[in-house]
Amino acid sequence: MKTQVIKIDAENINENALKPAAEALKQGMTVAFPTETVYGLGANALDGIAVSKIFKAKGRPSDNPLIVHIADREKVSELTSFIPDKAVALMDKLWPGPLTLVMKKSSVIPKEITAGLDTVGIRMPEHPVALELIKLAGIPVAAPSANVSGKPSPTAAQHVLDDLDGKIEMIVDAGSSRVGLESTVLDVSSDPPVLLRPGGVTPCQIEEIIGHIEIDKTIMNKVTADNVPKSPGMKYKHYSPKAHVIIVESSDINKQAEVMCYLAEKYKKEGKKVGVCATDQTFDKYCLYDTISMGDRNHPETIASSLFSIFREFDGRRADIILAEAVDQNGVGLAIMNRMVKAAGYDIVKADLVNSIGG
Ligand code: AMP
Ligand code: MG
């Protein structure tokens, strides 16, 4: 299969250029497109055969449900059997945007989408190209991240090509994704609602609108027999570059950098190629190593938007080990740390517990 790339200017959308992509979706093909979170791999959500092509192209386990993307609020009542008041309040305030709401599904949703669950995740993206594409297609569009399952999500069309060239029909290229991490997933089919995956919308923003929510324990903790995530996708190895990721955590950034340098030196001496994920505040401390700044600790959204592309960049540089600084879990920091710990397979070095280095 030849993968066709269509370039679209997000500031000045050429509808005629976008039409073939909408047509391809209508005809049951797979089309990758930009959203504000990451690039999605879309197919007609009402067509089980089209949806199964997504699973095949990504190598996605069939028990991991897909999020359905819409451009029009009216569609929610067609796709669900019950819309709680709290969902309405959240849609009013936070849609379009990086928030997926899990609700009881209606009978139009094919079983391939929900992996047999009686709920469906729905989101209205805010990216103008995503909205226009879904409007032109006139159908709800199922779209997980457009990467090979398990790898870091794509935040640019080139990342999609790197993973899925020849496996999907089309890619709509409209530059880089703004948020850089996937949507927040909130299950509003239960009360209080449960945060299943942190993302671009923070728990604080949600609680300001609907009051208390619960946070699924598996967001920051290992999945075990007694700690099973409610979101099936969260049990898989995720977001992982080829390199082994190690996170270094500390309440003191100087101590954190000291332990990072110690580990960088140790792995370098073992003949490993090391990549360092620093922050603007600590970048200069790593001048002896191959270092990229993830962004500014005081503006965690800058870190969110670069994290996955830095993982991919270090894979391109053939790093064996990626050492990454943990950041604060406040606000979007919770989503950043959720992705980091999953990428690292929970390999976290607690620098505060390291007493003497090199001793
Ligand atoms: P992705 O499409 O790769 O961004 O992943 C979608 C995420 O949403 C996965 O973690 C899924 O498990 C989760 N998800 C989608 N639909 C549901 C649902 N009906 N119930 C619980 N989690 C869901
Ligand atoms: Mg994904």
TrEMBL record:
Residues 15-201 form the YrdC-like domain. L-threonine binds at T37, H69, R123, A143, S183. Keywords: ATP-binding, Cytoplasm, Nucleotide-binding, Nucleotidyltransferase, Transferase, tRNA processing. Gene3D superfamilies: DHBP synthase (3.90.870.10), Threonylcarbamoyl-AMP synthase, C-terminal domain (3.40.50.11030). It is an enzyme of class 2 (transferase). ATP binds at R60, N64, T119, S145, S153, R197, Y239. GO terms for molecular function: ATP binding; double-stranded RNA binding; L-threonylcarbamoyladenylate synthase; tRNA binding. Its EC number is 2.7.7.87. It catalyses: L-threonine + hydrogencarbonate + ATP = L-threonylcarbamoyladenylate + diphosphate + H2O. It holds the Pfam family Sua5_yciO_yrdC. InterPro entries: DHBP_synth_RibB-like_a/b_dom (IPR017945), Sua5-like_dom (IPR006070), Sua5/YwlC_C (IPR038385), Sua5_C (IPR005145), T(6)A37_SUA5 (IPR010923), TC-AMP_synthase_SUA5 (IPR050156). It is found in: Cytoplasm. Transmembrane segments: none annotated. One of its GO terms (cellular component) is cytoplasm. GO terms for biological process: regulation of translational fidelity; tRNA processing. Its main location: cytoplasm. Belongs to the SUA5 family. Required for the formation of a threonylcarbamoyl group on adenosine at position 37 (t(6)A37) in tRNAs that read codons beginning with adenine. This is Threonylcarbamoyl-AMP synthase.
